[in-house]
Structure formats: C-alpha cells, structure tokens
Amino acid sequence: xxxxxxxxxDFVSPHFGRCPLFTIVDIxxxxxxxxxxxxxxxxxxxYLPEFLHKKNVSYIICGGMGQRAVVLFRERGxxxxxxxxxxxxxxxxxxxxxxxxxxx
Length: 104
What we know:
Elements lengths: L1 E7 L2 E2 L8 E8 L2 E9 L7 H8 L4 E3 L5 H9 L3 E3 L6 H10 L7
Parallel strand pairs: 1-5, 5-6
Antiparallel strand pairs: 1-2, 1-3, 3-4
C-alpha cells in the first residue's frame, strides 16, 4: 500500500495542496518497504490527483483538503485520511500500528 503524507518540515501539513513536500511511504505487512520525499509539483486545480495517481498512491494523509480535491481523488480510487496533525514520523508509527484515525 502506498501512502502520500502532506509534509511541511517534520510535520503533517495542515493543507494538502499547499504543502511543500509529500512523504511517500510504501507499507507491506505493517513494515516500511520504501520511503521517499517528493517536492509538491504545484497547486493547480485537478493536477495533484492525477500526479499522485500516476505515482500509484492508494491513500492521502493530511490535515485538511477541499471538497473538490476529495472528489477528484476518490474518482481515481485514492482514499483520504484528514484531520491528521503532528510529526510525520509519529503519523507513520500510528499507521503501522493501525491506530491512525481521521480527525476533524
């Protein structure tokens, strides 16, 4: 499973589209197989859903996301986990433990 975490420094970015980076994590059997950092290629309407779909992302993890983006991601089969805050490393640990839950 491939996750894209909106990233700002060491933290989950509060707004998905405006984050400077994405932390991409591949997880299999509750283990990190691969982790990479990608620059956000830009916040253009409809671009990021297609960009991350081509990167085979299955889930987006972020603080928040606009409704139009939610629809565009879901049309591509990408699930969204919003309301997440804190350090990216802690978010990944919760993900591995099965304890990452959407917030508000």
